[in-house]
What does this fold into?
Amino acid sequence: MVDSPSERRTSHSAAMAVRILAPLLICMLAGCATRPGPEVLTPVAASVPAAKVVTVYVATTRERASPRSNVFTNARARELNYAEFKISIPPRHQAGQIEWPQMPDPATSFTTVQQNVLDRQTFEQRIAVRDGRPGRLKVGVFVHGFNNNFQEALFRLAQMTADAEVDGAAVLFAWPSQAKVTDYVADRDAVTYSRDQLVDLLTMLAANRSIAEISVIGHSMGAWLTVEALRQLRLARNNAVINRLNVILAAPDIDVDVFRAQMDVVGPLSTPMTVLVARDDIALAWSGRIAGARQRVGTLAVDDPRVEEAALKANIRIIDISTLKASDAFNHERYANLAALYRRLAATESDGADHDLRRAGAFIFNAVGTTLSSPFGLAGSALSGQ
It folds into this structure.
């Protein structure tokens, strides 16, 4: 029997409703907590000797709530706004977690202890200074993902900075997410709006010779924004900027075909781009369904020989991090747990104990040994020319 036009319309509407509402239903079932508001940005004077204080610099396309305020709305700024936050990390902090304050208390929770409104010149000067002295420093830029408010992105970067114990500057690039699970399209427009400003930030950092290394971590929809910025830099022939970047895409919410087209323009990077994936990422599974059953890069299967071949051709390192414990109900934020393993990974790489940490291909991450292994065995070695 052939369905009538009205029945087909009804069926289509029902399918669309499922696509749009399913993430919200999952969120409700998972018991999503109340979102942190701007009150967590208010500095608390109390201090705890054993607490660690990390500094996060901010460049954002969000509007300020008022001209001299570091409360940021979801409105779109015409130019980048800059800020500096000092966040206290509690003595009993658990790696990979954010101890959100019910009542701000440095002894038990992440707490803002200082904040400053910065102009562009002051921002540029401060990120290139460590302990009051200029030097050849490392800078890490974090581009957050879909459905994040400003406070969530800020404290996430503070968590990763504290866990990694990186001796350098942490910079948050915050774009104006609506921070609503139902506003996927609005967030996609917001990252598109923010491309020029991310290019501007990366160009500024690359031009500063006090900075030795620049790493860019793009999570989820922020990964799409990151690759779009690279594409824009390449089209403008700003190769010197691209050559200074170490790019990491965590659970990238990018259509596979779109990513292939982006990388055709960007081309192989001098330092292999790292892509962190997991096939059980629920958030990306729903994103793919919303997009018409289009697979996302963040769910690629590293044991697929075609993925290995494509990674080698594009000089990309694709790493399955499914062995890491997920800190969220959607298996979408595993990357946050990598920060605590940073020093062991860096030591392994500097010792030359595992050359896989520095080359392109498809790998599985061993969370216990902090090493990578090929899922292909001899086949993988043959493909990589080993």
Q: What stands out?
A: The CA atoms of residues 190 and 310 lie 30 Å apart. The chain has twelve helices and 13 strands. Confidence is low (pLDDT under 50) at residues 6-21, 23-31, 378-386.
